[in-house]
Amino acid sequence: MHTQYEPQAVLAVLAELERRGVPVAQPEQLKQELLQAQEPPQPETLAQKGRGFLQVFVPKPHYFVTPILLNLNLLVFVAGALLGVHVLDPDAARLVELGANFGPYTLTGEWWRLLTSMFLHGGLVHLLFNMVALVNIGTQLEALVGRVQFVLAYVLCGLAGSVVSLWWTSPEVSVSVGASGAIFGMFGMLLMVLLLERELDWKSKRAILGNMVFVIGINLAYGMRGGIDNAAHIGGLLAGVVFGSVLLLRSGRYITQAYGAVGNAITVAAGALVLLVWFLQIPFTGTVRYVYVMEEVGELERSALEAALALDAAGDTYKPEEVLPLLEQGVRAWEASEVLLESVDDAPAGEEKRVATMLDYVRLRKLSYQLLHDDMAAGRPLMHPKQQQMMSAISHFAAQLQGRDPREER
């Protein structure tokens, strides 16, 4: 039982027993053990410190999901670097290629970007801040609520951050990446767990809250820099507060890891439904729609121009049976482009003229292709005065779109 007391106290008792002549079993061995317990611990070697640091990356019974998420984020970052993404200041276009949350794409079918953007980061500093915060919150929260609740909350809070980011920035365009929404959600969840649960004493709670406030403060200070997606932080935090509240109410305000699968399924389904409804309410207008339409028209133009390239390559030896299907494909592409451009009625300031010019260009291209198709099918000459006049007008609009003086085309 002596190990329950301070070594100094046990030594004092032994001395008093010896003074009174009370026999004690193996007193010298006991004194030696107590004196060794009083000695200050030896400083760790560099190798021991290294092994201790590496344990951060190793899953353990009560620290299982956190290191997996940590390693996954690190692996994605390394993979991006190997693909040529700058490790300190990555180009936004490259991040979009890898799966960043980008309104013109996310709102037009690529919803999976809400998830993939959670594992991309805007440089090494961004990654380090988030991973330190993830380990800090994971070591505390995962042990309290368990693996299942931790990973469910992480994903839902991350998705909430992505959805709120899109909603907040729309109809403008932004590129959003990072695990911050999910991590801030974990802090919100821990906050509600501490505030609502019945058993932990407030001394323990204050220690955890103090550490949490310190880490959140660092991340908020970093978030004051330009280009940080604070909307995602807020969205994730609020989702974490809601998830943590629901979790504690489900357990009668006691900390437990024994949550039923049915309750988990209902919680996830309700959260996903709320996020889906919110996502569907995000307006597809303004700059978001303009960027999407212009990129789509560019893709359609490349498809339509296959007929023109085939004609140029063949010259007078073209085969109608090969070119006619390409012209028909081109007409369909120009028609689709026309419909897209006609839908843009709120282009960003200064871009209205570009949309109008592009629409004129597309309509002329469509008429030119239709005329080429009819002439080719009837066996008539292709480059007659009417077609030449159309080609001249097309060159005029193309020069305007490329920022050149149309008079130079004459």
From TrEMBL:
It is found in: Membrane. Keywords: Hydrolase, Membrane, Transmembrane, Transmembrane helix. GO terms for molecular function: serine-type endopeptidase activity. Residues 109-248 form the Peptidase S54 rhomboid domain. Pfam families: Rhomboid. It is a multi-pass membrane protein. GO terms for cellular component: membrane. The keyword Membrane applies. Gene3D superfamilies: Rhomboid-like. The chain crosses the membrane at residues 68-88, 118-138, 150-169, 175-196, 208-225, 231-249, 261-280. Its main location: membrane. Belongs to the peptidase S54 family. This is Peptidase S54 rhomboid domain-containing protein. The lineage of its organism: Bacteria, Pseudomonadati, Bacteroidota, Cytophagia, Cytophagales.
